[in-house]
Amino acid sequence: MHEWSLADAVIAAALEESRKEGLEEITEITLKIGELQQLDLEIFKFALDELARTRDEGLLLKDMKIKMEPEKAIFRCRVCGKEWDFGDIGLTEEEYEAVHFAPEVAHAYIRCPSCKSPDFEVIQGRGVLIQSIKGKSAGKVQ
Ligand SMILES: [Zn+2]
Fold first, then answer.
1. For a surface tag, which of 46, 86, 114, 142 has the fewest beta carbons within 10 Å of its beta carbon?
2. How far apart are CA 36 and CA 91, in angstroms?
3. Distance of CA 96 from the midpoint of ligand 1 (Å)
4. Structure confidence by residue, pLDDT tens digits, 97-141
5. Where are the domain boundaries for CATH 3.30.2320.50 in the chain?
6. Residues within 5 A (CB) of ion ligand 1
7. How far, in Å, from the CA of 117 to the mean position of ligand 1?
8. Which CATH architecture best describes the domain 2-71+125-140?
9. Which percentage of the chain shows pLDDT scores above 70?
């Protein structure tokens, strides 16, 4: 259900944006999916397609392409200010999986690579963002 509510929020935001921009049709939407976002991408994609077909009679969204790009997780140490990503710390595959599927356990596996503090925050890679929306506006259609 998590995937469906996220997809619903994405479609609602896309429709809102298209109204603001005066678009007649949304042709492409690019999403950034955070590395730490717990999401079943197949269900998410299916939900987006389903909602795109049924929302607003599907008129705006019927030929919409959905692109998804991964967004790297970035951590920042609260003690020394160092920023790093998974590539910098060499987790084992099991540790990476554990953190990926339950980001709240990150602090058990990850330490600041500079000062070894476990006191850090996730500054990027935890959500789903709309990177861009492309569409045709009424005036520009041939
Ligand atoms: Zn540090």
1. 142
2. 14
3. 20
4. 888 877 778 888 899 999 999 999 999 998 899 999 999 886 654
5. 2-71+125-140
6. 77, 79-80, 82, 112, 114-115, 117
7. 5
8. 2-Layer Sandwich (3.30)
9. 94
